[in-house]
């Protein structure tokens, strides 16, 4: 067999199922047969046109779980991975998951390697990706959450709340729920609440971590300004008619002076931040940088191991995060999931490649 099936994005909202050559194994990498890929809001942002590649077509999918079927002769894999092992990775601009096979040049925990290049989105990236071997006790579907847990954990570890902080999670999709779960269980907040316009996701938030899940209008009416020390913003692109009801401006009003606003959600569309509130209150807006000259990929290799352990021990509950499984061969259903993602009551959808 020399070809594989893949889902290509030809342009915003234009997808096709196509045949592509199976890639060659890198001399210092692995070839993996895809097992599961979970759909990320970043995939949806590319699909909708809020994020965009340097050129089309592109194969989306980066919350990836694969089985190693070939190892390059120059890969230092001893003690890390072998044929038949399951692997999850975390990369910056690396996609290609919605295909039956993909290659990877991995960095494992404890290794220090780099292959840096300038990405077209204004930061230095690494041709390698942080990777971890999935232990036998973690199912494929649960292991699919290692990648998003890694992303949330990078952000929280880079900018953790202080002990006793009053915490607001802004947006309770999977990343918001993972971040809230980690903060609640490990970082000793005074309180932790959340806000989301999706009532279904508010119910999930309460189930996982939130002491109270507000709708935006409830947060405006019921919570005084200057109530929180720390905001974790996991929202995607936001567009509202009334700027006073922009959730990011609302969150800044609810922050105390010198409060910390941690930005996670990525969009290449400009978002509105209230610069007057930032100045008046001295709000500290921070993030975990994509740029590998600031946060090297070999450090993320240690974070992905910690993320895997959080799922294995139940600090992050992968079983509760899963809502829907869609088989890759059901391509029409997969496209409908992309089209309706913003309105679904589901929390997380995993695309299953196994037969």
Automatic annotation (TrEMBL):
<keyword id="KW-0479">Metal-binding</keyword>
<comment type="similarity">
    <text>Belongs to the zinc-containing alcohol dehydrogenase family.</text>
</comment>
<keyword id="KW-0862">Zinc</keyword>
<dbReference type="GO" id="GO:0046872">
    <property type="term" value="F:metal ion binding"/>
</dbReference>
<protein>
    <submittedName>
        <fullName>Alcohol dehydrogenase catalytic domain-containing protein</fullName>
    </submittedName>
</protein>
<dbReference type="InterPro" id="IPR013154">
    <property type="entry name" value="ADH-like_N"/>
</dbReference>
<dbReference type="InterPro" id="IPR011032">
    <property type="entry name" value="GroES-like_sf"/>
</dbReference>
<dbReference type="GO" id="GO:0016491">
    <property type="term" value="F:oxidoreductase activity"/>
</dbReference>
<feature type="domain" description="Alcohol dehydrogenase-like N-terminal">
    <location>
        <begin position="29"/>
        <end position="104"/>
    </location>
</feature>
<keyword id="KW-0560">Oxidoreductase</keyword>
<dbReference type="Pfam" id="PF08240">
    <property type="entry name" value="ADH_N"/>
</dbReference>
<dbReference type="InterPro" id="IPR036291">
    <property type="entry name" value="NAD(P)-bd_dom_sf"/>
</dbReference>
